Amino acid sequence: MKITQIPLQYYPILTQLIEFDDKIIEEIVQSLKIAQPTLQLEELTKTVASQVKTISQKSISEILEFVISLYSLSDDHEFSQQDVVNFLGDFLQNSEEFIHISLNQVERFKHRLSRLMEPGGVLPCYYFLMVKAKGTQETWQLGENRQAYGVQNLDPTVPELEKTFLELAHQWRRETRGISSTNKASMHPIYQQIIGMGKAVIPLLLRELERNSGQWFWAIQAISREDPVPPEKRGQTQEMIRYWLEWGKQKGYRW
Q: Most Cβ neighbours (<10 Å): which of 3, 235, 245, 247?
């Protein structure tokens, strides 16, 4: 049995768990170990956010919700937690959306997810006390065959602009796989096509930045013709992300 499709909203969380520093994952794990079981996910998120300062509270909330959904998957189908971790690792290796990641990244992802899903923590308690009592509506798709699930299967309710952006971003990542030069990758015709989408795509680019992807600095700068990052902060990815997100909020963008 393999996972052949996961809910679309979890794709960015998978990317975060692949790209985050190990230190961030360990900080989340340690903060969960000292957290008290609670029926309010918002309170739990705030507790974790008070200990993990390097990512946004929104990102923490999304990660916690994702891990809780995995307990639902495990319980509904009588899978062990390690089964779920292995299934997701297999999904990453066979999905067009994640074709750019290496085998080492997949193994690192599986280790991080195993840490987050360790038994005896507060998240399984939350699942059994709250989520299971309410019931879940996740749309995990399981099957015997390995099937790639890419951006072509986006939820039809996703706006057309966002669909186009996700499709182009996916194609760009696939075609620039192995290119280490950011300048060279940003000159790719598809990246330039994204820039050509104009200001309407800025909220989507800011959302990508918030999820700790520093690939889109040049695109936002080219579209907006602004650069809020002080010269002394250039080259410091997390600081650059912070300045761009503050700029976006000041400009009234929502993402």
A: 3
